[in-house]
Specification:
By secondary structure, the protein is an alpha/beta fold. It folds into 2 domains: about 160 residues, P-loop containing nucleotide triphosphate hydrolases (Rossmann fold, 3-Layer(aba) Sandwich); about 60 residues, no CATH class. Helix content is about 40%, strand content about 25%. The chain has 9 helices and 10 strands. The chain has a 6-stranded mixed sheet with strand order 6-7-8-3-9-10, sandwiched between helices. It has a 4-stranded antiparallel sheet with strand order 2-1-4-5. α8 packs across α9. It is globular and about 50 Å long. The two termini are about 35 Å apart.
Length: about 240
């Protein structure tokens, strides 16, 4: 569902993404890992058509990110690290605005709202303005906007950031439940989350992929916890 080949992006003299290539299939949950500044968010922004690449190609559900960006966006649910929203809107108004943008109308809209609000456990704040919400609830509203059109591909940057332990558990359960029917990419610094929900992990540093395997195989190969594996693989790249 996702095909990336030699993707590149620079910001002035800084090479943020340096020839990244990987595929992700339906039914996979990929943990996309790396230290701060590794290029993770830049890859996800290019894949979501928020940033144009300088080189290389990427496809989502067979649609090219340059030639068919609208089709790509229709097939993606994107939860950015800093969720863009309108702080003076109520949660309900914001999600209805997202439905407008996604072309959801009538019964399809009502069903999507009912299902997504329940999945993300935001019934109690549905009529509150977004600026009054806690960080955890804002994160859940961000997750709801990514899920509301039931996309086949989900790209999530730090999906449990700001959530309490119970909320993190709920989101991880939700990701695991959706996994069989979707292609999911999760970027996170919480390595226990990778072990909980991901069946594959890519580790990136300074714009290059350093490892691509399952969490279990990485731990076995490097003889340590996933935290230790991460440090061993990335230490020489961030020094």
């Amino acid at each position: 569902m996702i095909k990336i080949k030699n993707l590149r992006k620079s910001f002035g003299p800084i090479v943020a993404v340096d020839g990244v290539s990987f595929d992700v299939e339906k039914g996979q949950v990929l943990g996309f890992l790396g230290p701060n500044g590794a290029g993770k968010s830049t890859v996800m922004r290019m894949l979501s058509c928020f940033l144009p690449p300088d080189g290389g190609t990427a496809e989502v559900c067979g649609f090219d990110i340059i030639r068919n960006p609208i089709a790509v966006r229709k097939n993606i649910g994107y939860l950015a690290e800093n969720v863009p929203s309108y702080s003076d809107m109520s949660v309900g108004a914001f999600l209805n605005f997202v439905c407008d943008a996604r072309g959801l109308e009538g019964k399809a809209r009502k069903d999507a709202l009912d299902k997504t609000v329940a999945m993300c456990h935001i019934e109690s704040v549905y009529h509150q303005t977004i600026e009054t919400l806690s960080k955890g609830y804002k994160r859940r509203v961000g997750l709801a906007q990514a899920l509301i059109h039931n996309p086949p591909v989900l790209i999530m940057d730090e999906p449990t950031d700001g959530l309490d332990p119970n909320q993190k558990h709920e989101v991880r359960q939700l990701i695991s439940k959706m996994a069989k029917d979707k292609c999911i990419v999760v970027s996170t610094h919480i390595l226990e989350e990778v072990e909980a929900v991901c069946d594959r992990a890519i580790i990136i540093a300074k714009g290059k992929i350093l490892a691509d395997s399952t969490p279990a195989k990485l731990k076995d190969e490097y003889k340590g916890t996933l935290d230790e594996v991460f440090r061993k693989i990335t230490a020489h790249k961030v020094a």
